[in-house]
Amino acid sequence: MLKLFVPCDSVARAVGADQLADALSAEAQRRQVEVQIHRTSSRGLYWLEPLLEVETAEGRQGFGPVAAEDVAGLFDALTAAPAEHPLALGLVEQIPYLSSQQRLLFARAGITRPLSLDDYRNHGGFEGLAKAALLEQAEVVAAVLDSGLRGRGGAAFPAGIKWRTVRDAPAVQKYVVCNADEGDSGTFADRMLMEGDPFLLIEGMIIAGLAVGASKGYIYVRSEYPDAVHALNEAVLLAREAGYLDTTGSGVAFDLEVRVGAGAYICGEETALLESLEGKRGIVRAKPPLPALEGLFGQPTLVHNVLTLASVPIIMAKGAQFYRDFGMGRSLGTLPFQLAGNVRYGGLVERAFGLTLRELVEGYGGGTSSGRPLKAAQVGGPLGAWVPPSQFDTPLDYEAFAALGAMIGHGGVVVADDTLNMANMARFALQFCAEESCGKCTPCRIGSTRGMEVVDRLIASSDPAYRADQANLLHDLCDTMQYGSLCAMGGMTSYPVASALKHFPADFGLASPEAAQ
Amino acid sequence: MSDETLDLPVIQRVLDHHRETPGALLPILHAIQAGVGYIPDAAVPDIAHALNLSQAEVRGVITFYHDFRTAPPARHILRLCRAESCKSRGAETLAAQLREQLGLDDHGTSADGAVSLRPVYCLGACACSPALELDGQVHARLTPERLSALVSGCLQEVKPC
């Protein structure tokens, strides 16, 4: 009996994992070899997808990337000399890209089947919930506070403080809302976690519900992630059948519902998300009142990103001290960084805070996939700054990046080579903002469109004095958007624009020293 | 144009199903679109009535979100990712190729109703850029040749009578 593992992750499937699984089972049948094909989550080593793993006495042997055409040859090799096959990778867990990571959130990635409760429990699942259930609410909140966990959606607000606020708010009905509207381009950790380990998120939400006194949770997932929606819906049903979720009040008084977004980027902003959950246009609310006090349907609501909530079972199972031993300064724990764009080895790298951007991009990423010179990396999604290689030695730490005028955000890193024109990217950031602005505040609604016009005039002009004028205007506009917008959408659109202008003035047709001011 | 009254039973079923759902408008619109293919104009008064909203509020929500359509879709919907990661791997060249091969703009639909082009900003396939979604299926590590083959596949199939 041959035991094989092929990911069912949507991106592994987008590069042929289903075809691989089909070819494996057809070839096995032709050869009359008995096989078991397990569809697991992805390891996140995406340049190797579709990654085939074969169980052996030493551990799982990897082969990748395997196309359906390679299958016949692979079967020959498996019976003869597997290690000599050109796609052989050796033991998967010894691949340096993976073995050097510190996987807490993604400990089960590529190992378990996403919808197998047994797999989940056999790999530490529900240990956090079991411990939390024995504690007082205040002790759970204290553990989250002590762990140093900060909101992983981008704002990095201390999670425990939110928990305390919601817990202390008097109300009959409270809610836990998971912001799974991972709209930030260049990020895919939430998608991987929801598709690959949905019970971890569910466990985190149950613990949150118990701790703050909420009986109902919503997971708001973007519509661009249909596989995640499917996995979560199935996982919620399974968890309910197994008694982890309950509305009857006999067991755990917490139930969950998955809601699907409808293609609006702004609904990743927490108050717009709450409006959307209420069935309205995704228009940003003014704060205060904080959602922790007046959130969904006007009730106290704990709103967290997927990774924040999924960190909680680990903190409960292993202790706050275990978690805070990872990281540096006030950035504690691990962050799953997502390497994407023009990079040779794109994938998920979960490490404690504190490694440098260079280790990530050049070490793990192996530089550009085109082989051309590295130009910049955009860190933190479409509203993150473009960081030039001269700043790549900055440690990935919330405060260190803030000091650069950049941000870590949700941990997405998009790499670009020297062919990517930064003036075009600055214009794109403004265009994106114009398309996705909810329209409530003026700096964002009008500023984005005026900004595109300024960039267009700047690029089109050949008069240096005029260009300098337009560059000043653009700086001024960035300033207005950054400090005058109601939420981070308008406020942070200035980051990619101002950083492009500062570090790559030549792309705008500006002389370097003057624009660097 | 189809007779929208034919869709009313579907719409009524959806509204009945969500009678107790708090904040039901998005789930209702998704379900109607899944059942009918789009949100028929004839559905708006019923939705508004069921949720005790004005028709303007319902239309406001339909038009706010990119996903909701108010007309029948093309047979194939092709969404090429145009976000940063895919741009850094040549998405704009692919977009130009699409426009040329189909003779369509970014939001266009071909005259025979075969294909609609829609930009999308991130499919979460960034580690395997560039990517697109064709009728709900993601294809990553696109090359001009693969894109061309996918588009030809959409155009060549026999049209239903």
Automatic annotation (TrEMBL), chain B:
What cofactor is this protein dependent on?
Answer: [2Fe-2S] cluster
Which key words tag this protein in UniProt?
A: 2Fe-2S, Iron, Iron-sulfur, Metal-binding
The UniProt record gives the binding positions of [2Fe-2S] cluster as C81, C86, C122, C126
* Xref: SUPFAM superfamilies: Thioredoxin-like
The note on the cofactor says:
Binds 1 [2Fe-2S] cluster.
GO terms, molecular function: 2 iron, 2 sulfur cluster binding; metal ion binding; oxidoreductase activity
> Superkingdom, according to UniProt?
Bacteria
In terms of Pfam families, this protein maps to: 2Fe-2S_thioredx (PF01257)
Q: Is the keyword rRNA-binding in the record? A: no
Classification via InterPro entries? NADP_DH_HndA-like (IPR028431), NuoE-like (IPR002023), NuoE_N (IPR041921), Thioredoxin-like_sf (IPR036249)
The family assignment reads: Belongs to the complex I 24 kDa subunit family.
Q: What is this protein called?
A: NADH-quinone oxidoreductase subunit E
